[in-house]
Amino acid sequence: MASTCTSDADCGEGLLCASYSFECTYGFACQTPDDRCLGEIGCPEGDCWVIYGVRSCGGICFEGRPFLVGGELRTAAIGQREGWRESTMVPEVGRLSAGERERLTERWLGAARLEHASVAAFARFTLELLSLGAPAELVQAACAAMADETAHARLCFGLASAYAGRALGPGALDVTGALENTTLERILVTAWHEGCVGETLAAIEAAECAEAATDPAVRAALLTIAADEMRHAELAWRFARWALERGGPALAERIRCELAVAEPGPESAAAQQGEETPALRAHGLRSEHAIRVLRTQVFQEVIRPCAEALLAELHARVSGERGATGLHA
Q1: pLDDT tens-digit series, residues 136-167
Q2: CB distance 137 to 241 below 8 Å
Q3: Contact 57, 41 (CB under 8 A)
Q4: Is CATH 1.10.620 correct for 34-328?
Q5: 3-state secondary structure string, the chain?
Q6: Measuring CA to CA, which residue among 221, 233, 235 is closest to residue 299?
Q7: Which end of the chain is more exposed for a tag (fewer CB within 10 A), N or C?
Q8: What's the gap between Cα 32 and its chain centre?
Q9: What interhelical angle do 184-191 and 98-132 show, nearest 10?
Q10: Is residue 43 pLDDT above 60, yes or no?
Q11: CA atoms of 326 and 215, how far apart (whole Å)
Q12: Is 137 exposed, middle or buried (0-12, 13-18, 19+ CB in 10 A)?
């Protein structure tokens, strides 16, 4: 997270002290340079929201596996550069206003930054799997996911570049400290937030946005991302099972705590009033309200039941093994 604080005075001129929750801890942290808004300030519809510690105007339908280092979201700076845009999927921009193109550039560029950072997240995850002696099937799936995220980043940078009318791409990504604290617990907690929660949401959100999108290039990109992110989410859940089987009751209790932390919070009244326009929806942009409703539904109907079922299964297995041991004593 950003620097901890107790009041706005701790954060420097023009920065505020805001609450956060991450990994079963709660506190306050200063705004960061990556924050794009605060409350109702800076967003056309007042739909400022928080994803993994970064405040941004809501609406883009997916985020992929975030690259988290110590609870902080890492992404690369963006500049005018070639080499990262997919040029075969070009959206129709002729009927869009200048304002609509600007909003779509910002949203798809935000998605591109996150997808680009996801490459690093899977590179780290691959190394972590190797450090744990994980099965070859998990390592192979993680390597394949890294290639998927590279393709996703190119798709998103390609769309953002088309809306902007110039080539956009990432600069250097800070990976300092990314491989610190490589304990089984730490690796599982990160995979839980990045994969079990983040990519389960990303897969379903991308599929929902593809359903509403009518631009052929945008729809094709969203369908590709949705299918890939679903495989990535499945990988995260398989790893969670493998790790929990080795970590025992204490690790299971940690994930129960993380389940409570990950649950979406209430949305603001301003976000509830935000509206979608047909043109933006056709190009993959939804209101924060629509995304918040979907996220809450997915968490309650998919993520929470899956986590509780997994934890209950493991608890029953441990109890059965203890009982069997007692019978043979």
Answers
A1: 999 999 999 999 999 999 999 999 999 999 99
A2: no
A3: no
A4: yes
A5: CCCECCCHHHHCCCCCEEEEEECCEEEEEECCCCCCCECCECCCCCCEEEECCEEEECCECCCCCCCEECCEECCCCEECCCCCCCCCCCCCCCCCCHHHHHHHHHHHHHHHHHHHHHHHHHHHHHHHHHHHCCCHHHHHHHHHHHHHHHHHHHHHHHHHHHHHCCCCEECCCCCCCCCCCCCHHHHHHHHHHHHHHHHHHHHHHHHHHHHHCCCHHHHHHHHHHHHHHHHHHHHHHHHHHHHHHHHHHHHHHHHHHHHHHHCCCCCCHHHHCCCCCHHHHHCCECCHHHHHHHHHHHHHHHHHHHHHHHHHHHHHHHHHHHHHHHHHC
A6: 233
A7: C
A8: 18
A9: 150
A10: no
A11: 63
A12: exposed
- Pairing mode of beta strands 54-57, 48-51: antiparallel
Encoded tokens for 142: 């993680």
Q: Which pTM was predicted? A: 0.78
CB under 8 A, 24+ apart: contacts of 178-181: 178/67, 178/69, 178/74, 178/120, 178/124, 179/124, 179/127, 179/128
Nearest in space to 69 (alpha carbons), one of 6, 157, 16, 128: 128
